[in-house]
Amino acid sequence: TTKVNLENRMGLIFLDDLPGTITDAILVTRKLSVRYLWVDAICIIQDDMDDWETQGSQMDTIFFNSWLTIAADCAEDSQSGFIRNRNTLSIVPCIHPSIFKNDKTRHDGNMVNGDVVCHFPASFPSSYLEDRGWIMQEELLSRRLLHYEEETVTWECPSAIPSERSPQMKSTPKNLDRYALQRIRFWYPRNVITALTRPLTVLQNYQLWHRLVKNYSNRHLSVPTDILPAIAGLANAWNLNSDTYIAGLWRADLIHSLAWHHVWYKPVTHIGCLDPALQHLPSFSSLCIGSNSVRTETDS
């Protein structure tokens, strides 16, 4: 949606005018008998900065309050769509009765054909969403996600992550906050944070935030200047001990938050923002260097 087509969009939107990924999302929404679908590219006026600032600041509540978030993991872009023609017989677990029983063997039993997943997945294989900056808020704040992968569909919520391949999997925390923390835990070395069955200390909460920012800083944003807005929703949801949030840092944790440095992959002649579009950001924040590897004190 742009200023040019806004008036027309307010009255009627033709499906043929929309890219494949959005039309697939509309199809899924209708199949689920859900009345409303929120798509940022449609619901936010793309060339109106005031509208972007207003709507962007509400992203956390949009994801958190949505009934379901559709994750188009297999969609390379907005045009490609995510609904695939698949052979479900090769995906859905099935039982072959007495497959080993014959005259030459004493084995007699059933063989189960299917995947067994017994742990919370750190990520979804071959997902085009894993390195996108705005997607982090969707991953951590959505109550329910429906993942459309290349060969299978997976449901993800705070109580279970069943998929067509492994429909019985139930290993996620029951609480939404702990569910989000469980995801973040897989971005950590094992010695950094204790098991999430125990309450996190104030220090561990800040350490989690450092790791979140590090993961986020390595993601891609099509508009580099979105780097602060795209993480602001997570900061609102995080609300560490009613602390003051400052451009990716927390006031009470500044002594640790400022102890970061860029992991250089090539020689540079100066220290500063690597992306000219980010030169307006405060230089004390690791986010000012854009999508680059950052190392913090808590990594050591």
What is the topological layout?
Blueprint: H1 6-11, H2 20-31, H3 40-43, H4 49-56, H5 59-65, E1 69-71, E2 94-96, E3 111-113, H6 135-141, E4 145-148, E5 153-156, H7 176-185, H8 202-217, H9 229-238, E6 245-246, E7 249-250, H10 254-257, E8 260-262, E9 294-296
Parallel strand pairs: 1-4
Antiparallel strand pairs: 2-3, 4-5, 6-7, 8-9
Helix pairs in contact: 6-9
What does this protein structure show overall?
There is one protein chain. This protein is α+β, with helices and mostly antiparallel strands and 300 residues long. It contains 10 helices and 9 strands. It has helices at residues 6-11, 20-31, 40-43, 49-56, 59-65, 135-141, 176-185, 202-217, 229-238, 254-257; strands spanning 69-71, 94-96, 111-113, 145-148, 153-156, 245-246, 249-250, 260-262, 294-296. The strands form 4 sheets. Strands 1-4-5 form a 3-stranded mixed β-sheet, with no helix packed on it. A two-stranded antiparallel sheet has the order 2-3. Helix 6 (135-141) runs parallel beside helix 9 (229-238). Residues 185-197 have low confidence and may be disordered. This is Heterokaryon incompatibility domain-containing protein. Residues 16-138 form the Heterokaryon incompatibility domain.
Short description:
By secondary structure, this protein is an alpha+beta fold. The protein is built from 10 helices and 9 strands. InterPro entries: HET.
